[in-house]
Amino acid sequence: MSTGLQLALLAGGLVGAGIALVVWHLVPAQPDLADALARLDPRAPTNQIAVTTDGDGHERLGRWAMRLLPPRVWGRIPTADLAVLRMSLSHFYGEKVLFLLVGVMILPAFTVLLSALGHPLPVAIPAAGSLVLGAVMFRLPNHNVTDEAKKAREEFRRALAAYYELVALERLGGAAHRQAMVDAATVADSWIFGRIREELARSAWAGIGPWDALQEMSTQYQVNELSDLAQAMKLSGSEGTEVAAALRARAGALRGALLNEDLARANTAGEKMTIPGSLTAVIFVLILLGPQLMRIAGAG
Fold first, then answer.
1. Residue 247 domain boundaries
2. What's the confidence (pLDDT) of residue 200?
3. 56, 122, 219, 221: which sits with the fewest CB atoms below 10 Å from its CB?
4. How far apart are CA 163 and CA 254, in angstroms?
5. What is the per-residue pLDDT for 10?
6. Is 219 found in the same domain as 177?
7. Of 105, 131, 152, at which residue does a domain stop?
8. Burial class (CB within 10 angstroms; exposed 0-12, middle 13-18, buried 19+) of 205
9. How many CB atoms are closer than 10 A to CB 48?
10. What pLDDT is recorded for position 1?
11. Total domains present in the chain
12. Are residues 26 and 62 in the same domain?
């Protein structure tokens, strides 16, 4: 069997597998009832990764890969990042496997195209390249999750600056500690306030303090500003100290820190914008001086 035919068969099999995975991804599925009930269980540990219940192709592919492959294959698991994004471990593994398959399929398909155009490549080149590209693509979901979690944490911090003020206003209005935190969390419909409402409801069902629930949430999501709120409310609840002024002061400090970060990013973006402007000026000068330099060189 010729090398071109072998590559064609291999590429056809990989493309067929990719089409099957796409179809598998598009097939609707019912939510996992066990996962949904586990999320509502007040006795469930809060430091576990939140599970998505969409039951899509990534979930099923990830569960299949978890049963087939040993744990050491996956490397470091970004547990806190997955918790912030509310992404299950099986979904994350499914993305890694899917990216791996795409990376492995690209070079063989490109090699078949070159062979059809009359430019065949040695088998070793696409084979080695597929392994390298597959390994790179296998790591890409880790970087994507880290980047998305960073943006989510920044959004979380911005929402907490408003939540500080809302809790302080509720306390100034005479609301109790838990009631102030619950009422402040019902003001907005964003995913951040929704997560806070979930944790406060779980703490009520489990019979623990709301500040303890927020402290666990801070540890789980790695958002230190949420821990500051929990400590302030805990101190107010145990010692009866006034918390409204402290919360407003922390809200002002948080807004100042966020403003400084925005200014730093704006300055960085402004510095990057000067590079294209400088290059344009250099090119314009060369256009003006080019004919004169050519005339001088020709005269010499």
1. 154-254
2. 92
3. 122
4. 11
5. 60
6. yes
7. 152
8. exposed
9. 13
10. 46
11. 2
12. yes
Whether residue 282 is contained in a domain is answered as no
Is this prediction's pTM over 0.90? Answer: no
Give yes or no: residues 97 and 22 share one domain.
yes
Residues 121 and 207 in one domain: no
Q: What is the pLDDT at residue 145?
A: 93
* Close Cβ partners of 149 (under 8 Å, ≥ 6 residues apart): 78, 80, 81, 82, 84, 85
The span from the CA of 204 to the CA of 183, in Å, is: 14
From the list 177, 215, 174, the residue with the least C-alpha distance to 196 is 215
Looking at residue 130, its pLDDT comes to 81
On whether residue 260 sits in a domain, the answer given is: no
Which amino acid, residue 113? L
One domain for residues 147 and 35: yes
Distance CA 186, CA 182 (A): 7
Which segments of the chain have a pLDDT < 70? Answer: 1-56, 237-241, 298-300
Q: What is the DSSP letter of 109?
A: H
Asked if residue 300 belongs to a domain, the reply is no
How many CB atoms are closer than 10 A to CB 252? 13
Whether residue 197 is found in the same domain as residue 144: no
Distance from C-alpha of 18 to C-alpha of 22, rounded to nearest angstrom: 6
- Predicted pLDDT at 47: 38
Q: Are residues 134 and 81 in the same domain?
A: yes
- Give residue 298's pLDDT: 67
